[in-house]
Amino acid sequence: MDSESHITSQTVLPLHGWQSAYELGYAAALWRLPRQKDKHLILNFGTGVSTTKIIPEDLPSGFAISPFLNLEGEDSLFIKADVYFRFNEMGEMVTESNKSAEYGSLKEQWESRCRTVELSALNKNNTSDSSTHTTYSSHLQSVKEALAAIEAGEFQKVVLSRSKHVTLPSPFSVTSIFERLCDKYPNAFVSLVYLPHLNQIWLGATPETLVSVDKEGIFRTVALAGTQSAFDTAGQPIPPKQALWTQKEIEEQALVSRYIISCFKKIRVREYIEEGPKTAVAGNLMHLRSDYAVDTKAINFPELGTVMLGLLHPTSAVCGMPKLPALQFIQEHEGYDREFYSGYLGPVNIDAETHLFVNLRCMKISNGVATLYGGGGITEDSVPEKEWQETELKCQTLMAVLE
Q: What's the pLDDT tens digit per position in 370-380?
């Protein structure tokens, strides 16, 4: 990749680079891909983050983050990579791309801050948040109403989520939490994104690929649903091969798989590979997972990633089946705005690859408060009290690294 700058690996480290951008008010994204060691950092020195439709063939290198409610696809945010770095597991810079000539003075200011910044904490806008999280009784009531709607034939499945608010200590270090997530969840996509125009930080470790296209043109997506604890009642890890799945969980995952296959059929893609379902461990949880792959070069369909993105989001794993009545029920009963939770995020056209993930197991940090999220698929076999417990398990993914 091109490099015109004189930044050295002694000047920029991944965490220092992100925190320097945060302190100076620049949009930034730091991430680590699943089952990899390298960390990636991009910064944008412009005055704002652009809103666009994510069409990788038309976009430069950058990082996308899209809200849950984005049916037309036009409300995604895109952080253009004015500078991009890749670091190995030792924190040494191995790739640098610099496209920020018009922001020379701003970049110099950031470089200077990188040399002196300490990985201490967030202190900006650190005031309390008056919002309240979803209560036990209100969530159970929503689940009961969902079950009644399913029995009435309105939809087969709906995914109901809840939020949970945690007041953060002052000072608080998000970069330390990012590192903990990288260590604790090696199979997840771990990301730390700063959106200065919204005064929001999004931090998470998601297990679910939405759309991925690598250098060889291999498209990938997954059907991930069904949830149980990865530990038994004695606190010991359950071997994946010994996991027992109920009919409810099997059918919930099958709905997601059938939806992906229906999308392939809609665009007449028949040459796909399907693997699974199999038990996949994601931190403190286990899920049922099926993997799908398509060779876009072999079928001469280079736009497959973009087309499938438009068809898949939001998947039945985060919304329901059929999509539109489930979405309407969510809007009427959840009682809060999911914002970027259960949307998608990830790098676009970085090293000739695009990797977008469903934004699960995440938290929003704003005004000194962390908002955590957890959801579960409601089907005719759901038990309201168990659905609440599932959301608690999912929130624990992030709570475990805050404690």
A: 999 999 999 99
Say if CB 207 and CB 187 are below 8 A apart: yes
pTM: 0.92
How many Å apart are CA 191 and CA 358, to the nearest integer? Answer: 12
Residue-wise pLDDT for 366-403, tens only, equals: 988 999 999 999 999 999 999 999 999 899 888 888 87
Q: E strands of 9-71, at which residues? A: 27-32, 39-44, 50-52, 62-66
Per DSSP, the residues of 141-204 read HHHHHHHHHHHTTS-SEEEEEEEEEEEPPSSB-HHHHHHHHHHH-TTSEEEEEEEGGGTEEEEE
Buried (b) or exposed (e) across 11-43, using 16+ Cβ within 10 A?
ebbbbbbbbbbbebebbbbbbbbbeeeebbbbb
* CA dist., res. 203 & res. 316, Å (int): 23
Beta-sheet strand order (sheet of 200-206): 93-98, 83-87, 39-44, 27-32, 189-195, 200-206, 362-366, 369-378, 157-167, 320-321
With a CB cutoff of 8 Å and minimum separation 6, the contacts of 60 are: 80, 81, 99, 349
pLDDT given at position 12: 63
The runs of H, that is alpha helices, within 209-351 are 247-266, 304-312, 323-333
SS (HEC) of 300-333 = CCCCHHHHHHHHHCCCCCCCEECHHHHHHHHHHH
How many angstroms separate the CA atoms of 225 and 30, rounded?
Answer: 27
Does residue 34 have a cis peptide bond before it, meaning omega lies within 30 degrees of 0?
A: no
pLDDT tens digits for 196-233? 999 999 999 999 999 999 999 999 999 999 999 999 98
